[in-house]
Design goal:
By secondary structure, the chain is of the alpha+beta class. The chain has one domain (26-291). The protein has helices at residues 9-19, 32-41, 45-67, 79-92, 124-129, 132-147, 151-168, 173-198, 201-213, 224-228, 230-233, 251-261, 265-270, 280-291, and strands at 70-73, 98-102, 109-113, 118-123. Strand 3 and strand 4 form a beta hairpin. The radius of gyration is 18 Å and the shape is globular. Mean pLDDT is 82; it is low at 1-25.
């Protein structure tokens, strides 16, 4: 198996500052709250401590835990998937990243490493359940994490959630809550990246519904409009508090946020639908109202 790059937090900070000097974090499609939240991380000691500490743990055994039983995608091995990866990277204007497929029953994918040396991990079950267009959307989403410099924070949240908690307990809690709040916003950014790659909001929405459903026997009965009505049912009640600690917004909210992005002039032009549409500022305002945990 290929050598997985080491994480180096000090180098990450240096490169991040030089890469964005005089520029600003993120791309035109990025959700503004994602950019703003990441900008505060450099001023938050708990987050910097968590990133530094989890980088050391990643070097020790985290990368082996993730990639010990996976298979790399390239032009000769899984060329169809590699073609989707190359198409996604080309659309978003990034170098083609490394991608692996791993055995996992959960319909999921993730991006890990650092912003300079990252890789995408797709669960094999996702490939079995999704159409090629839906897979393209997922891979575009993961490439969006790379393009928007999310990777080191995603990796830290993964380690805090699945590996560190039993060892450091409450010490990691402030950083975990902060990173989860950011992650919910970062997912909105990357849902948009997937849409820009696949250029079909219905494909993006159907893939999202499949994540919520998980049953091949029921996929042909999915009704996207009916699914979105669940948002109203879930707006009230004490149970919504759990979302405040989750790394992803609830799925109906993500579908609604996708539909708002599909109305923007930016998306419509990219998808070949014309140059009319709402501004990104108006879109972000509407999305903020949708994804807020407490009304």
């Amino acid at each position: 198996m290929a050598q997985i790059p080491e994480l180096d937090f000090a180098s990450f900070v240096r490169n991040k500052k030089s890469a964005h000097a005089g520029g600003g974090d993120g791309f035109d499609y990025a959700y503004v709250s994602d950019r703003q939240t990441r900008a505060t991380f450099e001023k938050m000691a708990p987050v910097e401590w968590a990133v530094s500490a989890t980088v050391r743990m990643w070097k020790a055994f985290g990368k082996n835990e993730l990639l010990g039983h996976t298979v790399r995608v390239n032009e000769r091995q899984f060329p169809r998937l590699h073609g989707m990866l190359a198409q996604s990277a080309q659309t978003l204007g990034i170098p083609t990243p490394t991608m692996y497929v791993g055995q996992n029953p959960h319909l999921n994918a993730g991006t890990f490493g650092t912003n300079d040396d990252s890789f995408i991990l797709v669960n094999g079950s996702l490939i079995d359940h999704f159409s090629d267009a839906e897979l393209l959307d997922v891979i575009g989403h993961e490439c969006g994490h790379i393009q928007n410099k999310h990777v080191v924070y995603n990796t830290t949240l993964y380690i805090l959630t699945y590996m560190v908690n039993a060892l450091v307990g409450g010490l990691a809690y402030p950083a975990k809550v902060a990173l989860a709040a950011w992650s919910r916003r970062a997912e909105i950014t990357c849902d948009r990246a997937g849409m820009l790659v696949v250029k079909d909001v219905n494909v993006s929405g159907k893939g999202m519904m499949k994540l919520a459903l998980g049953s091949k026997k029921l996929y042909d009965q999915l009704d996207l409009d009916e699914f979105v009505t669940q948002y109203e049912d879930g707006k009230q009640g004490i149970g919504r508090i759990a979302e405040a600690f989750a790394s992803h917004p609830y799925v109906p909210k993500r579908v609604m946020a996708m539909r708002e992005f599909a109305k923007t002039a930016l998306y419509r032009k990219a998808a070949g639908l014309g140059e009319d549409g709402i501004t990104m500022e108006e879109c972000d305002k509407r999305v903020s109202e949708i994804i807020q945990v407490f009304a």
